[in-house]
Amino acid sequence: MTSSLLLFYMSETVQLTDWWISADPYMLLAAVLLPVLIWLTKTPLAKFLILPLASIARAFHIEITTAEKSRLIIAISAICVAAAFYISYSFLGVPGTVSQLLGAVIRIALIVTLFRFLNDLLQSAIAKAAQSGGSYNVISGNWLPQFAKLVVIVLMIFVILQGWGIDLGPALTGLGIAGAAVALAAQDLLRNLIAGVSIGGERRFKVGDWVNFGGGQQGIIEKMELRSTVIRNFDGSKLFVPNSELANSVLANFSERDARRIRWSVSTTYSTSPEVLEALCDRISEFIFECDLFLKSENFHCFVKLHELKESSVDILVDCYVASNTWEAELNARHVLIQEIKRIFADLNANFAFPTINVLGGQQAQP
């Protein structure tokens, strides 16, 4: 054992000595200076290299924050240093087994820094999607960033093993068979996961939206998890809806409305004269057009017209839109409009109608 190690040491020493004697001194100097120069200038170099990335982001209306830029600069700096060492080592062509191990370590370092940069990009993209209402905005929790990180790590390990010359064919075959078995056992989980990603990609809703789904179920979106979406009912209870069921159901997102609609039938008595009926419509319409609580535009028309003759009333249709999308604003607009309609009826001496039944009495016919 000792003699084998001695022979190995002597062989390595002879190869390194021969290489050193025959090496070009200028090449040696350049190989030493390149990593040192890159190390000393890694931060300014990284800031320069990140400029094209920032320009591309701005072209897509994405702003890179200071914290994200600092994290990316650190990753790019590490790539520059690792690449400098790799280039220097490749040019030197150092022989021997030890140098080959050193080269493998440098290659691994370069691969790790590259995938670290890729992971930082993915994490920033996920965070941006959450801030801008993208697909991740509805997916609260941290499973998506962790899943992306896991994918990057697995890919990095595969690349490193391939670089070492390890045949991954049998391993991939085994993983394929195991993956098929796992997919078969967890098909419900996978179906809900895919449905969740699909919902996020379609941007059907985001956290905080008021939705109606499944034939009458209503609530506020609280968060979207790996398997289900949590919806808070208006009575305070929670609904855990499987993502696949939510993706396949007809869903109305009330929070996406530009305005809230008020559509009433205001009933007045048949004794109201045509002139008073016309005045009622005009004054209610005038109030709605002058009040800032209601929308007045081509897309949101306001109507106050005689609408229907019922058994005990003449109905006035009041159809308008509240200039807000919140429930509180709608309640306030309803309150103000009801008060004004009451005042208008009082000013014009008009009466509200209510269902009445006329009972006609008489003497019973004699047989």
Q: Describe it for me?
A:
With 367 residues, the chain is of the alpha+beta class. The chain has eleven helices and eight strands. The protein has helices at 2-22, 25-40, 42-59, 66-92, 97-131, 143-163, 169-185, 187-202, 243-248, 274-290, 327-347, and strands spanning 210-213, 217-224, 228-232, 238-242, 251-253, 260-268, 303-309, 314-322. Strands 4-3-2-1-5 form a five-stranded antiparallel beta sheet. The protein has a three-stranded antiparallel beta sheet with strand order 6-8-7. It is elongated, with a radius of gyration of 37 Å. The protein starts with a helix and ends in a 20-residue tail after the last helix. The model is unreliable at 134-138 (pLDDT under 50).
- Based on DSSP secondary structure assignment, what is the total number of beta strands? 8
Q: What is the residue-averaged pLDDT? A: 79
Largest sheet: 5 strands, antiparallel
Number of helices: 11
Structural class: alpha+beta
Q: List the secondary-structure elements in sequence, H or E.
A: HHHHHHHHEEEEHEEHEEH
Low-confidence stretches: 134-138
Notable characteristics:
elongated; 11 helices; three-stranded antiparallel sheet; 14% strand; 367 residues; alpha+beta
Task: Spell out the blueprint of helices and strands.
Blueprint (H helix, E strand, L loop, with lengths): L1 H21 L2 H16 L1 H18 L6 H27 L4 H35 L11 H21 L5 H17 L1 H16 L7 E4 L3 E8 L3 E5 L5 E5 H6 L2 E3 L6 E9 L5 H17 L12 E7 L4 E9 L4 H21 L20
Antiparallel strand pairs: 1-2, 1-5, 2-3, 3-4, 6-8, 7-8
